[in-house]
Amino acid sequence: MAMTASTRDKLKGVSTATLCTALFKRGLRNQFIQDVHPLNPALGNMVGEAFTLRYIPAREDLNPLSVFLDRSHPQRKAVEECPPGAVMVIDSRKDARAASAGGILVSRLMKRGVAGVVTDGGFRDSPEIATLSIPAYHHRPAAPTNLTLHQALDINVPIGCGDVAVWPGDVVVGDGEGVVVIPADIADAIADEAVEMTAFEDFVTEKVLEGRSILGLYPPTDEQSKIDFAAWRKIKGR
Q1: For the residues of 143-165, what is the DSSP string, one character each?
Q2: How many other β-carbons are positioned within 10 Å of the β-carbon of residue 185?
Q3: Which helix (DSSP H) or strand (DSSP E) does residue 50 occupy?
Q4: Over the chain, what is the mean pLDDT?
């Protein structure tokens, strides 16, 4: 089932930290992609369903530059087939010695309406990618062409990215801290819970900055804290 517009909007307003806690409550402890960082943290939340690309180690006789003349080359094909609103997630085996993609391909994804791109490797042309209006996450810059070390093989299959299992259609959310993967079948429930958690966390932050102790407030074990939160929500319209 496709993600609803309501769930997408909710996930745009919550943090990956809050989502990780909501997932932890359901026993999911390994949904935060390790060692990836946003090239432009100011873009706001990235939200979309996963469309995947898998690389294997390149073998020199199979990966001359001429492979890009083939219109069915998996990397090029993935860029042209990733659906608008999706997030392209690339399994580069956590190897940033060569690029997973570069500025031209990421620009093409942006123009096609893709919601973002994530690799556990690196991007070339990273200074240019950082100026684009598409969220992009990688481990670190990587100037060498992908063919140096990576052979694109599979499109839209289950992959590993930064030690997280990613299935096509999983919901991918990125913010200034990183990227979290939500199983598709619980995305609606996680989004609802995260909105509630965010409201409470905003209330707690406000009270702490006023000088209030966290004891009894976070978590809310004091009855007065619960009453205060209910009153705060009414005032804030949340």
Answers
A1: -S-GGGTEEEEEESS-EEETTEE
A2: 11
A3: strand 46-57
A4: 97
